[in-house]
């Protein structure tokens, strides 16, 4: 079984989580991920979660150098292995990730007609997400491309897809019930907004842009008018 690589957007870079397995296979899987998406990773700051794998200086040095050759900066290695933590510190790498500071709740609710999202964080992905990709982000996610079956998006805010949505998507993952999911072709395997889950019926007729949102506690889809939310 091919090792799984999960990518999560952080405020200060990307967190790459590797599945369990042997280090040579995981190392090769990560570099193959990068090879397939060079524009996405170019210039990125990476934190890599290697689980409980015990890694030595030679192994982490090789990873750091390989990422540097591909215009990336390895700044942190997260592991439950004391040996790996010690190795990472010896190389000047961080071993802990800082949690994002929670935004204070506004004193008053914004009017229902307000559509501005100024100041909110968004992750832009210019690519097709294939099976096995999982992207999580503490904000909005925008995809210019398709989301294929087997791919998964998790956002605390909205999810906007300029393409076909056929994978799994969860908007408003932290309980934001006014989050929306938009796509030029809304045909997900599973769609979730806040705590509500919907499995849309098979499409009939020609695909059209649609937006899914919660209405009276139920996920509903309707025509997508980009001029309004």
Present the secondary structure layout.
Elements: E1 5-10, E2 13-18, H1 23-36, H2 38-41, E3 45-51, H3 57-69, E4 73-79, H4 82-90, E5 122-125, E6 134-137, E7 140-143, E8 152-155, E9 159-165, E10 168-171, E11 181-186, E12 190-193, E13 196-198, E14 210-215, E15 218-223
Parallel strand pairs: 1-6, 2-3, 3-4, 5-7, 6-8, 7-9, 8-10, 9-11, 10-12
Antiparallel strand pairs: 1-2, 11-14, 12-13, 14-15
What does this 3D model show about the protein?
The structure is a single chain. The protein is an alpha/beta fold. The protein folds into two domains: 5-90, Transcription Regulator spoIIAA, CATH 3.30.750; 122-223, Pectate Lyase C-like, CATH 2.160.20. Helices cover 17% and strands 34% of the residues. It has four helices and 15 strands. The chain has helices at 23-36, 38-41, 57-69, 82-90; strands spanning 5-10, 13-18, 45-51, 73-79, 122-125, 134-137, 140-143, 152-155, 159-165, 168-171, 181-186, 190-193, 196-198, 210-215, 218-223. The radius of gyration is 19 Å and the shape is elongated. The termini are far apart. The model is unreliable at 100-119 (pLDDT under 50).
Structural class by SSE content: alpha/beta
- Proportion of residues in helical segments: 10-25%
Tally of extended strands? 15
CATH topology of the largest domain: Pectate Lyase C-like
Q: Roughly what fraction of the amino acids lie in strands?
A: 25-35%
Provide the gyration radius in Å: 19 Å
Number of helices: 4
Number of domains: 2
Task: Give the overall silhouette.
Answer: elongated
Give the class-level CATH name of the largest domain.
Answer: Mainly Beta
Largest sheet: 9 strands, mixed
Low-confidence stretches: 100-119
Q: List the strand order in the largest sheet.
A: 4-3-2-1-6-8-10-12-13
Give the distance, in angstroms, between the N- and C-terminal Cα atoms.
Answer: 42 Å
Mean pLDDT: 81
String of helices and strands: EEHHEHEHEEEEEEEEEEE
Known CATH architecture of the largest domain: 3 Solenoid
């Amino acid at each position: 079984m091919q090792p799984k690589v999960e990518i999560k957007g952080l405020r200060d870079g990307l967190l790459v989580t590797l599945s369990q397995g042997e280090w040579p296979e995981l190392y090769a899987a990560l570099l193959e991920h990068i090879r397939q998406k060079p524009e996405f990773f170019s210039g990125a700051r990476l934190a890599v979660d290697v689980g409980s794998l015990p890694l030595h200086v030679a192994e982490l040095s090789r990873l750091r150098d390989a990422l540097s050759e591909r215009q990336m900066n390895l700044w942190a290695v997260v592991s439950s292995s004391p040996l790996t933590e010690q190795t990472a510190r010896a190389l000047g790498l961080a071993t802990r990730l800082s949690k994002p500071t929670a935004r204070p709740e506004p004193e008053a609710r914004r009017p229902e007609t307000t559509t501005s999202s100024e100041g909110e964080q968004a992750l832009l992905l210019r690519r097709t997400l294939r099976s096995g990709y999982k992207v999580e982000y503490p904000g909005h996610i925008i995809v210019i491309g398709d989301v294929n079956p087997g791919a998964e998006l998790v956002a605390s805010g909205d999810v906007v897809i300029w393409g076909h949505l056929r994978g799994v998507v969860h908007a408003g993952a932290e309980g934001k019930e006014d989050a929306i999911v938009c796509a030029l072709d809304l045909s997900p395997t599973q769609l979730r907004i806040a705590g509500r889950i919907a499995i849309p019926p098979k499409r009939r007729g020609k695909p059209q842009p649609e937006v899914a949102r919660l209405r009276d506690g139920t996920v509903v889809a309707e025509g997508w008018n980009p001029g309004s939310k």
